Structure formats: structure tokens, C-alpha cells
Amino acid sequence: MQTRLFAAPSPHIHGGEKTQQIMGDVILALVPALAVSCYVLGWRVFMITAISVASALLFEYLIQRFLLKGRTTIGDLSAVVTGMLLAFNLPVGIPWWIVVIGSLVAIGIGKMTFGGLGCNPFNPALTGRIFLLIAYPVQMTDWTTSVPDAISGSTMLANVKAGALSLSELDFVSLLGGHMNGSMGEIGALALILGGVYLLVRRVITWHIPVAVLGTMAIFGLSVAIPDGGATLWQLPLFHLLAGGAMLGAIFMATDYSTSPMTHKGMIIYGVGIGVITMVIRLWGAYPEGMSFAIFIMNAATPLINKYCRPKRFGTK
Amino acid sequence: MRTFPIGGIHPHDNKEWSKDQAIERLELPDKVAIPMIQHIGAPSTPVVKKGDKVLTGQLIGQSVGFVSANIHSSVSGTVVDVDGYANGQGQRRLMVVIKREGDEWVESIDRSPELKRECTLSSEEIIAKIKDAGIVGLGGAQFPTHVKLTIPDGQKAEVLVINGVECEPYLTSDYRNMLERAEEILTGVEILMRAVKVERAVIGVENNKPDAVAHLREVAQKNNYKNIEILPLKVRYPQGGEKQLIAAATGRQVPPPPALPISVGAVVCNVSTTIAVYEAVQKNKPLIERVVTITGKDLKSTHNYLARFGTPVSRLFELAGLPEGDVKLLNGGPMMGRAIVDITAPLIKGCSGITVLSGKEAARGKELSCIKCGKCVEACPMGLEPYLLSKLGKLQKWDMAEEHYATDCIECGCCSYTCPSYLPLLDYIRIAKQTVMTNIRARAAANKK
Q1: pTM of the complete model beyond 0.95
Q2: Across the interface, do B255 and A7 touch by the CB < 8 Å criterion?
Q3: Is residue A71 within 8 Å of B368, Cβ to Cβ?
Q4: How far is C-alpha B333 from the geometric centre of its chain's CA atoms?
Q5: Residue B126: which of B226, B276, B229, B291 has the closest Cα?
Q6: CB-CB contact of B171 with B295 (8 Å)
Q7: How far is A86 from chain B (nearest CA, A)?
Q8: I need a labelling partner for A295 at 20 to 30 A (CA). Which of A194, B44, B62, B337 fits?
Q9: ipTM score of the complex?
């Protein structure tokens, strides 16, 4: 064998990080929450997640192969993440065919119509969830097959909002551990935080978005609780952080690369926006939960935020 | 520990391959080909013709204009040709080809090994000597040193920053010079301080070379070199970039182009260049040789050679041996080095090392689509948005690229290095930068009329 020289412009080496690996890290970070959910809600959680992931992969493949007639990119694992996140946003009792429709909307409309990975303005999994929430409101808010001894029929957020449950009756320890009604993946704040810490350590995400979202929610909750005073002073903010989709949204959904700002400053503005909108919907809106809508709205604001929050140019003040 | 303010990456430094190889003198080649352009600026004009006898150190290429540099013969012998030949990148360049006969030096050059420290020359005299000697930046940029040292009217230098960072992975020529020729460096620094009339100099060295820091400090203290601070810096690429080093060493940020380092009172010079300055000023020796690292994981042996310019690259690999199969030969290191496509091409002034990467190590990954992760933005040491600039370059939106400061790019490669989608970000940014610079020049020319 002889020596052959070949040429290319610099740089000639690469750090080695791959898109696929980042997606793999996100999947791994979701596993603890999945496990908690399986433990609390049963094997059906696993089945729904599997259906969601499989259909997301299938739709991405079919659309790329036959509709767009291009090469398929399901190997980058982003469809797996979308599938998992969609499942995490559904109630466990949801009929399987609704899951498939959700996947089709998430991948087909949420992602592929805009040109695939990185081009979508809205989080695909959220696109799927919001579509289902509007199209199948009954099935999407049916919590009857959930935790046996939790207050049946509705989520904690809904119960507290309706006045059926007072904050002082809450057991925060069980909230942390996932002992509450809710979408499959949003219960078990502790497991979600664990996943978030993993993503931080692996440098997949930075602290800016989760801290901005959760911090804003806590401060907002506190300022609302101050007039009431007393026990709710610490309970209201904490409740809002642990209940509903706060953790799942702040750590996993809002941090989606393509739909969130690029600079740290932009990320903080975006996170604060999500926190405020979520709390406004939760406290005064028609829905008990506002996380999905808040992220969706701030997704729309992301290009604008990117336009005005540029990185600091070297040598300028 | 200090470093530059924004961006940067931390690639494996791979210095262990060649860092312990002491500098060895490479046997003189039988024939050298010396390009008339080995610097930024106008090409020099040959002042010898076919059949002329030349001595080692004799002027063979006269600089043209202010931003240009003299070229000297690196061997003694007969000029056999003055014609265009391929350089390392395969571009045709005017070269003087000399067949070597012995090694007879120009008489005025002091070849004694003793260190000559005392210098009483004025600033102008020092700069003139540096210009005569054809010294250019040996860190890789090849910018004529006398131009850098000539402080424009109305401006004042406050600090001399010496670049001993060597942040490029693999390369060890500056490191070996710091270990083996510390006193020449320090004397060179004193001369440069005199040339730009400053009271203070800082030698920035990355902290992966603690022995170089310790050695320079020891030599400086023992021999009473005053006002020269040896400053260890936190390891981070591209610390050796001029603006990054000034920021790390002095805390001052050079404003965006066209501002130069002097606008914050800094003058920067590479350590190896400092040795060349010492030799030119104190020993009348023009720039005819340098230390060049021959390194790579698959080589039989690695070296730090003191080699004459014009030596064919293939000669540098006689002992190290080129590995079989697909390899990339880089003039410089893996982050900013340029691929050599012709191994008969000559060694030039800006070549601090030749890094050999195996095909697998240098292969580019499969391009995926941008996922807007923002890692390039975080890595950019100039505070740019590489993903955006690259896209603008690809779409040929030159005006928008200009608005997004394409000309600020220092081509360090941090963006492409970090991109998880393996996008060739810098390829397109480079095209955008060059086009925008051409446009700016064209506008300026049109305005003059």
C-alpha cells in the first residue's frame, strides 16, 4: 500500500460529539421518569410509550422515504425523543389509536412540514399534544385509570384550582415521588430532576432555561401567595413546581434546541416568558395546566428573541 | 488562572508525541527551492539569476513596499533556476532554486555560540535590522515583524506580549525553544521592548507546559531580566490567537476590525520570532532556518528539527517515515494548519510544524442538518454566530454576512470542531469573510475616486 495525501480546509479534527449521542443522552435522561411512571401507573405506561416511539419512527421514515423521496434520518434518534416526550404528555388510559394520531401530527405536521430536524419552529411533541388536547379533550383529560388512592378524576392542579383540594392537605413528599394524577411522564418530579442533572453534567443543556422557567414560576407563585399569607406562602410556589408538567416542561420540553434561543441571555428571557405564561394560565385561565401552551407561545417568540439577543461581539462593550 | 473572556474549546493537546524530542539540526539538503512569497503582503523580487553563486544568508529576494519581507538564501551554492513551482498547497509560486555546494556563510554573520546580551541600538536601528533580516511572524501568520513593531503616529505601545502559548494541538517547536533557548528568547524580548519603547513585557505560556514556565522564570531571575513577567495561562484553544492572548494577558479587548492590537497599547510577538529577532539584531543573522515539529501518531519517530527554509517537505520525513494509506499532511497543527498536497514542496517561514493525521483521524463526519443547539455560538471566541454566518455564506448573502461581522472571524475552527451535526461551518464562513473583505476594499476604492 502506498501513501496517499488528501486535503481539506481546517479544522482537521472534531470534538467527536454527535447529534445522535445528544439524542441518546436525552433518551437516557428520560428513563428514570419512565421507570417511576411504570412503577406508579403500571405496565401500560411502557406500552403507550413504545407505541408512540414506534409510530413516530415509522411516520418519519415513511414521510422521508416516500413523500419527500430523500434519505431517511431516523438514525439520529430525534424521532425517538419526540415519541417519548409525546407519550410523557398523555394520560395513561389513552386509547392506542389516539397515540398514533398524536405521533402523526407531531412528526408530520410538527416536524417534517418545516423541513425536518432543526427547522421546526414548534416543539413537535407539544404540537402533537396540543392537537390531541383540542381534538380529543375527553380522552386527554381522563385520569380515572390512574393512581388508585389519589383523588380520582382530575389532576391535582385541577383539584386545587376547583377548590376541591386545599394546599394544606397536600403531601409534598408523595408529589416528589410521583404519587399523583397526571400525564405519564410529568409525575415523579425527583426522577425528572435526576434526568435534568444528567443532561447538565453531559452538557446537553445549560442551566439557563430550566432555572429561568422554574424560578419565575416560584417567584410568581410567591407573589400571589403573599396576600393570603400563612401556610400557603411556601406551599403555593412549591406546589406549582412539583405538580403538573412544570419539571417535564422546564427540563425537557422547553430546552429543545431548535425551538429555543441560542444565547444565554435569550434563554433567560424565553424561560421567564414560559414561567409567567404558565402561571397566568394556571391561576386565571380556563385550563388547569398551562405549561404546554406557554412553551408553544415562547417557541413562536424564539426567532424574535434570537434576533435581539445576539452574543457579545469580542472587543465591544 | 487567566484566560480569554469568551468561547474556546479544549481539544486533546497531543503534545506528548514530540515534546520530549530535543531540537536536532537537520542535515542540509542538496537542493533548496525558496519561494519569493513567504509572508503576508507583496511578493519579493528575485535579485539573483540562474548561474549566480550565492552564500548562506545572502539576500536573494528584495522586499517590495512596506508590507513585504526580504528573502535570503538558506544554503550556499549555485542558482539553478528562478521559476514557478508548486508550493505545499499546489499553487504555482515564483521560487529561487539553489543547488547546494558546502555551507559558506556571508561574512558579516556572527556564528559564535556566545550569547550577546548588550544592545545599545535605537528603536529605528533595531526595526531596520529586523526588516533587513526578513523576519516574519513564525507562529504561522507570517506577518512581517517590522510592520508590527512600527508604531503608527499618535499611538503608543504600553506592553509587549510574547506568545508562548502554542495552543495548537501536536506542535512543540515553541515549547522546545522555550526549554532550550530561553536566554535567547529573553534577550530578544529586551530588544523588542527597546524597539517598541515599553517598560513591561509578558510572556504568556499555557499551563500544559509548566516546565517551560518554570525554566523561563529561573533563567530570567538568575540573569536578572527585569520587567519580563512569565504568565501561565489556563489551557484553552485558541489562546494563541493575537486578540485572545492580549485579553488573557492584559485583560484588554482589541476592538473589532480594522482596529489593531496597538489600539489597546499592545504589541504581540511569538517566542520563536523573538529568537529570530535576537539573532538578526545581535548576530546579523537573517531568517534562514527555524524549528519545525514533525509529529503524528503513526510516524516511526517524531522530531523537532532546526531546518533551513527551502528544504523539501519529503526530506523532513526521511527518518519519521510517512505512514501508508490515506494521510493528511498539515502545514501547522490540526486546528488551523493547511493541508499539504505536494511533498516536494519547500519548508517555509510560517511552518511551525508538520502534523500527520491518519485518514481516519482526519476524516470528516457525515453532515446532518443544523439542530440549532447553539454550541458553535458558545464556542466562538469572537462572539459571533457561526451557524448563521455559515448559512449566509452558503446562500451567498454577502451583505447580511457583513452585518453579522463576518470579518471578525479569526478562522480558529472552534465552531466546526464542536458542531454535533458535523457541518463544515468554517468552510462557508471563510468564503463569506473573504468575499465581504473584497467588497469592503472595493467600496473603499470606489469612494476614493
Answers
A1: no
A2: no
A3: no
A4: 11
A5: B276
A6: yes
A7: 19
A8: A194
A9: 0.90
